[in-house]
């Protein structure tokens, strides 16, 4: 098997709100969109994200009313402090400000208008 790209699909109530958050704060661009659907990507080859409106018929019946929960979309960055400063300047307050885990991971969390959680992470110097 050869994988040529990757995407994560997230079911949300307001597709435009999550799409705008991802575009405004993480440099994603809408690649395709329709009523209740948006696919966003980056030119640097990061993972694509797809937002589907809860209830949309493209989903199997058992999943149509399920809202994305418990999923964290993680982005590895080079300068976590700068990212936190940038996000705050853009009006995004961290859900969890920068902290360092015992295993050397430094992270911060932000949450979009639909409750989708994004983790920015960098590995601490040892």
Automatic annotation (TrEMBL):
Keywords of the record: Dioxygenase, Lyase, Oxidoreductase
Entry-linked PROSITE patterns: VOC
Keyword Oxidoreductase appears in the UniProt entry: yes
GO molecular function: dioxygenase activity; lyase activity
One Pfam family cited in the UniProt record for this chain: Glyoxalase
InterPro entries: Glyas_Bleomycin-R_OHBP_Dase, Glyas_Fos-R_dOase_dom, VOC_core
Domain of life: Bacteria
Domain VOC: residue ranges: 2-123
Listed name of the protein: Catechol 2,3-dioxygenase-like lactoylglutathione lyase family enzyme
Organism, scientific name: Actinoplanes lobatus
């Amino acid at each position: 098997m050869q994988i040529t790209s990757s995407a994560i699909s997230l079911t949300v109530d307001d597709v435009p709100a999550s799409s705008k958050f991802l575009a405004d704060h993480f440099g994603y661009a809408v690649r395709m969109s329709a009523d209740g659907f948006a696919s966003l990507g980056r030119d640097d080859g990061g993972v694509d994200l797809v937002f589907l409106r809860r209830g949309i018929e493209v989903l199997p019946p058992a999943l149509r009313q399920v809202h994305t929960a418990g999923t964290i979309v993680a982005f590895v960055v080079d300068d976590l402090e700068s990212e936190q400063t940038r996000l705050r300047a853009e009006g995004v307050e961290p859900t969890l400000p920068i902290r360092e885990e015992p295993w050397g991971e430094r992270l911060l969390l932000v949450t979009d208008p639909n409750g989708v959680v994004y983790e920015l992470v960098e590995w601490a110097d040892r």
